[in-house]
Amino acid sequence: MELFNNLALGFDVALSFQNLLYCFIGVLLGTLIGVLPGLGPTATIAMLLPVTFTLPPVAALIMLAGIYYGSQYGGSTTAILVNLPGEAASVVTAIDGYKMARQGRAGPALGVAAIGSFFAGTVATVVIGLFAPPLADIALQFGPAEYFSLMAVGLVAAVVLAHGPFIKALAMVVLGLLLGMVGTDVNSGVPRFNFDIPDIAERIDFVVIAMGLFGTCEIIANLEVREHRDIAISKVKGFMPTKEDWKLCWPTVLRGTALGSVLGILPGGGSLLASFAAYTMEKKLAKPPTKFGEGDIRGVAAPESANNAGAQTSFIPLLTLGIPSNSVMALMIGAMILKGIVPGPMVMTERPDLFWGMIASMWVGNLILVILNLPLIGLWIKLLSVPYRILYPAILVFCCIGVYTLNNTEFNVYLLVVFSILGYVCVKLECEPAPLILGFILGPMMEEYLRRAMLLSRGDPMTFVTKPISAALLGVAVLLLIAIALPAVRKKREEAFVEGAD
Amino acid sequence: MKIKAPRDFWAGLMFIAFGLGFLIVSQNYSMGTAVRMGPAYFPTILGGLLAFLGLIVLGQSFTVSGSPIPRFAFRPLIVILIAIGLFGVMIRSVGLVPATLALVVVSSLGNYEFRTKEVLVMAIGLALFAVGVFHYGLGLSFKLWPGH
Lengths: 502, 148
Prior knowledge:
The structure holds 2 protein chains of 2 kinds.
Chain A: H1 2-14, H2 17-35, H3 41-48, H4 57-82, H5 91-102, H6 106-140, H7 144-161, H8 166-181, E1 183-184, E2 191-192, H9 206-224, H10 243-265, H11 271-285, H12 298-313, H13 315-321, H14 327-338, H15 346-350, H16 352-373, H17 377-384, H18 388-407, H19 411-428, H20 434-456, H21 463-466, H22 468-485, H23 487-501
Antiparallel strand pairs in A: 1-2
Helix pairs in contact in A: 1-16, 2-4, 2-16, 3-4, 3-9, 4-5, 4-6, 4-12, 4-14, 4-16, 4-17, 5-6, 5-12, 6-10, 6-12, 6-13, 6-16, 7-8, 7-20, 7-22, 8-20, 9-18, 9-19, 9-20, 10-11, 10-12, 11-12, 11-23, 14-20, 18-19
Chain B: H1 6-26, H2 41-63, H3 74-93, H4 96-108, H5 116-137
Helix pairs in contact in B: 1-2, 3-4, 4-5
């Protein structure tokens, strides 16, 4: 079977000494930073991106992917032990996980999170291997009109499926698209919106934006609140959940994995939506439902398996269509472009080593996480007791050196100040920064496809609705926009995200 | 008319300002035609769209009520921004080591408790770390200190 040949090639790449090493470093760093509260995966990847600059492309992407799912994993440890989500996707894990820890069952909670995640990761690896090639085949048929419509529906869906006020999120996407226009116009060579500053003659570096909106801005926001951490326990023993636990939660793990895999592929999906949705679903299905929210092991198993599955399948649109489904994937696209790889359906045929190597490395990375993390739990607990006043200057040092080394110009550091202010204002005004990053990455691509499509159709905009695939995609975008405008749907959407928060 | 949702009110104004800003600056470039779009074409559409969305958000702020704007914590905000700016000024003129020391010391002022000894140890430690990892480890070359 082709899948096995492909996976064999992938494992060949992933198990080479160098790649194994970078995978290991990636998951370790990812977990480390994921454990620390107040620094999400987007900021983590933006922060550590410069570290991968000197690596070959395959190793760099393997490491970045490792950082991503490593940070998911670390986030759940913090959620269970301290009741603080290390990153947003583990918000719901904290509900039952922390209660379990308070009841002296931190071990099984961590154990089920680890094993559930590993199982979900394994399934998701196979899902990617099965579904990515046919999807890439379809994508190869796409012309510029289809691509433009695909990006439009992707951005709309990303906003609809994410939480927060809808129109503001849509406006943030458009603002991102506009910021993506800053710099030289590829067609005419005219520098746009750069006010004659040579440092942004080409374009604004996406790392600076991500670091400002997610990294430094978060630090400022975190410093507002006096920190308070209640570490449930200082020592954890016995990770194996009991037989009854297993009986209770294996169907949950299966359902969580399935739901997470599907939601991960959707634009705007990924791990966050997956964990919220899985928790809500299990809460409704649970029999008896009484213990949910009071330290039910299913309340840990569901979001943890779902978010890991979702985190991995969100690579599918990235690797096959070249379209990011969330802000982390937007950064991955940026990293690929930096490495001279054009994301899209061609990656699979032109760089099979990179494509399959990355997929295989995800499974390897998940295995490393299980082996590594449970024994290292003592270390993570120690890390959690490091106060924030010591952590944030260290994070700042990374951010500042990181943006400086992008081009060896201090201008990027000043730009970081600008985007920190923008990010802070946006947070205060309840405008999500994630859609902005998506728009920023897709902006130049959308403009390019729009131009090409209009050139091919001799200036007739009807091309977007007369081509069937493009029309169908735009139809989906319109349906989503109509759906979100309906009060009933809007209410349901708000409920889905509020469920976990209370 | 009364503002019912101050966050939406200001967000709306912000989007309108950005939208119009991009729209106006775009007009310096050539518009081109629908077949051959000039550099102003797409940004003009987007700028208009952003201003329009801003207008909706602004309009909603008078009809749908929302929560007030949370207080700005000016101390951490200003201190952190100054610390980053200072790093920018220093990194090339006086080098990585002094820039990192300044960044750590100044940014620590953003916290409500400042422990002199701890901050100094941290500053020196992080400067050593930065030199070791970024300069030697990753081979990114920096000016380390004045006259380096």
